[in-house]
Write a structure and sequence with these properties.
Elements: H1 3-23, H2 32-35, E1 39-41, H3 56-62, H4 64-70, E2 74-76, H5 109-122, E3 125-130, E4 139-140, E5 146-148, H6 191-207, E6 211-214, H7 222-232, E7 237-239, E8 247-248, E9 251-252, H8 257-270, E10 275-278, H9 280-289, E11 315-318, H10 338-345, E12 351-355, H11 356-361, H12 365-377, E13 386-392, E14 395-400, E15 404-408, E16 421-426, E17 429-433, H13 441-462
Parallel strand pairs: 1-2, 1-12, 2-3, 3-6, 6-7, 7-10, 10-11, 11-12
Antiparallel strand pairs: 4-5, 8-9, 13-14, 14-15, 15-17, 16-17
Helix pairs in contact: 3-5, 6-7, 7-8
The structure holds calcium ion.
């Protein structure tokens, strides 16, 4: 190639690179408060306090100081609107939160408001469960179908036009996602429907909720979650996109990239800069790995195999929720290995969400708190950098941000260097840290220098791990 041509080629590629930089949208992330935070799901299935229904909000309020001491920053409430089913996932009148004489399963409007006030005062952000894929009607139409919404509140007064066509006599547009057969699916393409939802969510904000957990988001197009975030400005939101993982018979396939890609695609289409999504990929892989197959925790690029390996700033990690565990137990984390699971999610990137039942019913509070203390003392956050040192049968070992080392499995392993002190250990796990809460003078010097390195790491990773890979659909076995 002649020199002048070469020069042209080089300048063209520089120009291309430059224009690429210009047109590539900068993906913003949830604020530092979210990135540094720890969430708790504040209920399971059929959650009752003291054996009675109607006391749950009071129970949560009574634990506010304790939750603060554990290190909880965000508390996810059960769905608050009166529902056909006790647990709240078949809502009818969005504005009926229960009265003293006629409570919902969890309480009434006053006890809810009181709990929200107390939690906000303690600095714990209440997260509302937003169930808007489907809605149960108050009346039947002339054909006897339940699709007339005319509740006592007089709000969100809908009829067949608000229901997706093909469902419960719906005369709206076709569903933009999956249907939820037990109840009429809402037509989110309808502007009046969206306006009413945003009005209700802003009313919920006035009650004291500051963030959203969106139920069953595979039920409608992700752009609507983006629109609801835009109309309500939450601190952050998190979607429940629960889809099947890849199995061969009952064996989880090694490669679950298609699954975490689905989570990335949902975030991409959502467009809300504060949207997160539950990291079902990490849950599904981790709960198999903790039985000994730790090689599952490292991908071909040396990263974690869940969403946290690709888009950690938007990943909410968890072990179990009211569906997968609790009384339903649809897809539980192995009971005896739950602390291994917490040793992983509480030292790794992502926004960890711990489960109320593990803390208070399984009596794992002290063990879990110790891990949260380590996370916070070492400023581990959603975009912390993981260096995976071992991922083999019987052993997983990693160093996070150069400050926390951890291992899972029954093989021996310990980090090199005297700086790491054993900070927590239990059944098949150990965690070492450079900063521990109990250490005094020297640790404050250390943690101030490490906080600088954290912010450097964060800058590097915020432009982000979002991946576009070829999706290879393998035969999947239903796992819902
Ligand atoms: Ca739907």
């Amino acid at each position: 190639m002649k020199f002048s041509n070469r020069l042209k080629a080089i300048s063209a590629s520089i120009a291309a690179l430059f224009s690429l930089t210009l047109i590539t949208p900068v993906v913003a992330d949830p604020p530092a408060k979210v990135s540094n935070g720890v969430m708790m799901q504040g209920f399971g299935w059929d959650s009752k306090a003291g054996g009675d229904k109607g006391n749950w909000y009071r129970n949560l309020e009574g634990k506010a100081d304790d939750m603060k001491a554990i290190g909880i920053d965000f508390l996810w409430f059960p769905p608050v609107s009166r529902s056909v089913s006790d647990q709240g996932y078949l809502p009818g009148d969005y504005y009926d939160l229960g009265t003293a004489g006629n409570t919902t399963f969890y309480g009434d409007e006053n006890s809810l408001k009181s709990a929200l006030k107390t939690l906000n005062e303690k600095g714990i952000v209440p997260v509302a469960d937003i169930v808007i894929n489907h809605r149960c009607a108050s009346h039947q139409d002339k054909n006897g179908i339940w699709n007339i919404y005319n509740f006592a509140s007089g709000k969100a007064k809908w009829e067949q036009w608000a229901v997706c066509s093909g469902q419960f006599g719906g005369q709206g547009k076709p569903d933009t996602g999956d249907a939820f057969p037990p109840a009429p699916d809402i037509d989110h393409t309808n502007a009046q429907v969206r306006e009413d939802i945003i009005e209700w969510m802003n009313w919920m904000k006035k009650l004291g909720f500051k963030a959203w957990r969106y139920d069953y988001v595979k039920g409608y197009a992700p752009k609507y979650n983006g629109e609801y975030d835009a109309g309500t400005s939450p601190l952050f939101s998190v979607g429940e996109l629960w889809t099947n993982m890849g199995f061969s018979g009952s064996t989880l396939n090694n490669d679950q990239n298609f699954h975490r890609q689905q989570l990335c695609d949902w975030l991409d289409k959502n467009k809300s800069e504060v949207a997160c999504v539950f990291d079902f990929t990490t849950k599904g892989i981790l709960q198999v790995a903790v039985k000994g197959e730790y090689w599952r925790l490292k991908d071909s690029e040396g990263k974690p195999t869940g969403l946290i390996g690709w888009w950690p700033s938007r990943a909410v990690t968890f072990l179990d929720n009211h569906d997968t565990g609790s009384k339903q137990n649809h897809w539980p984390f192995p009971n005896n290995e739950v602390m291994q699971g917490y040793a992983y999610i509480l030292t790794h990137p992502g926004i960890p969400c711990i489960f109320y039942e593990h803390v208070y019913d399984w009596k794992l509070k002290n063990e879990i708190k110790k891990l949260i203390d380590i996370r916070k003392a070492n400023k581990i956050n959603s975009t912390s950098k993981v260096e995976i040192l071992k991922a083999e049968n019987g052993l997983y070992a990693a160093v996070i941000d150069g400050k926390v080392a951890m291992k899972l499995g029954n093989k021996d392993w310990a980090p090199e260097g005297d700086a790491f002190k054993l900070a927590a250990s239990g059944n098949n796990y150990a965690v070492w840290a450079k900063a521990t809460k109990s250490s005094t003078r020297s640790s404050s010097v250390r943690s101030s220098s490490t906080s600088r390195s954290t912010s450097t790491t964060k800058k590097k990773t915020t432009t982000t791990q979002k991946k576009k890979t070829t999706t290879k659909k393998k035969t999947t076995t239903a796992r819902r």
